[in-house]
Automatic annotation (TrEMBL):
<protein>
    <submittedName>
        <fullName>Peptidase family S41</fullName>
    </submittedName>
</protein>
<dbReference type="InterPro" id="IPR005151">
    <property type="entry name" value="Tail-specific_protease"/>
</dbReference>
<keyword id="KW-0472">Membrane</keyword>
<feature type="domain" description="Tail specific protease">
    <location>
        <begin position="236"/>
        <end position="469"/>
    </location>
</feature>
<feature type="transmembrane region" description="Helical">
    <location>
        <begin position="350"/>
        <end position="370"/>
    </location>
</feature>
<keyword id="KW-1133">Transmembrane helix</keyword>
<dbReference type="Pfam" id="PF03572">
    <property type="entry name" value="Peptidase_S41"/>
</dbReference>
<dbReference type="InterPro" id="IPR029045">
    <property type="entry name" value="ClpP/crotonase-like_dom_sf"/>
</dbReference>
<keyword id="KW-0812">Transmembrane</keyword>
Amino acid sequence: MKRTVILFVLSIIFSCQSVKKNNLFLEKKISVSQLKADVDFAYSKLQRFHPNLYWYITKEELDYKFDSLKNSLSKPLTPNEFYFQLSPVIASVNEGHLRLRAIPRQYTKAEQKAFKTKKPLFALLDYRILDDKMFVVENKEDVGQIKKGTEIIKINNENVSDLIKKYRKLYSSDGKNQTFQKYFMNLSFFNYYTLENGYLDSAKLVTRYNNKLENVSIKRQKKTEKEVIVDRVQPKITTLQKVQDYDANSKTYNRSFKFMSPDSSVAYIKVKTFSATLAKKFYKETFEKINHAKSKYLILDIRDNLGGSLSEINTLYSYLTDKEFTLIKPPEMTSRTSGMYQNYFRGQTVFSSVFSAFGYPFFLAGNYLLSSKKEDHYYFREFASRSTKPRSNAFKGKIYVLINGASFSASSIISAKLKYEKRAVIVGEETGGANDGTVAGVNNTVTLPHSKLSLPIGLFLIRPNIEFENQSRGVIPNFLVDPEFENLSDSEDKILNWVLDDIKFRNSIIERKK
């Protein structure tokens, strides 16, 4: 018991020291020569590991951007000041998975415990960022009596439009795509703001409604005792919830299924992310129900799905086709040893790393053996690049796939394959992810030696097994339906309604022919 107490006290002390060390480093100014060395280091690692670095930008253009950045560095910067200088250059590669990561402020266990008793400050309102402006779309708790449609002009004396322009330089979509940016900015704005300012307990806003300016203060609200207890207690998750990949924090399902017509002729599957968690079981049970109901139409909704597991989309595709298929081409790498550099130990504790170390030699050997060389190119044998047979109860009716600008990565791969094979009608908005593939799969996350910023570099060029369009665009829908992202007042689901209307029209034609 005494040893346990001593170890507990020591762990707290070391944890506090680590937090203090991290936060002190954030204030440290890094010399110009060291900053320039980090720029060279980042570019050298990109050239070494990124399998298609000059896909959307020429080598001459990218060389110029890195050289220009080095020439512009004239004074010492803190790590995150440097982040805002280097990140736009990394983003100019125009490959959506490739983003430099800043160093967030860390908090002690006591501070983290205090945060859990309060509600997130900026989550008190729901926002929509349109171009360079931010609007309130919902105010559930009537904070400051701010009305729906109110524009937030300033946050703590900083112009929101300036912040949006600043943050927009930190990321990109794939190639020439223009639909992804608006979704990602809405997802990431307050992540970037918190990175710069930390977790705030209050903020002063300047708002505009009906051309009237107002100063509004918002304050982080305390949770009720009941809310704290509910958050603390982990609810028991049923088998059904596990299969649907239930998220207890948001109280939502990652996967869901329902029939959208009384006669079960229209089946609907929504997948928010391809997490792979019990995916095989979910699709097996779902398509058994669809097959039993003899559904004629299937709507696959992968809007706002940022991607995920290749294994899951391969499983899903096997229920959508009646012929043997190969989902993706063999992933391409820069060398036969690239796969050996993926993040094997990253994210593990010291304790778990000790046990993982025993498997490391097998990991290295396996990655090498799964690699091959053909005509001066290096490839990796990924499961989804092998031939797969369709399921016996695969859906044989008409398929609609719903997409938008936040359909990214794996969502784009399965959409591109279904469109190319003419197996589904693609409806909605151009995907944020490229039609012709992406650089992802696994990462080698390198740490810049002086600033300690981290740069995850995708090791695999993953491309759907199709003939490429070479347009540097996302998956273009067969039927473009504007989701009217800019409309703050209309909650109508225009893309889904278009599909339901099309099904009604088709059914009416069938009825007339009888």
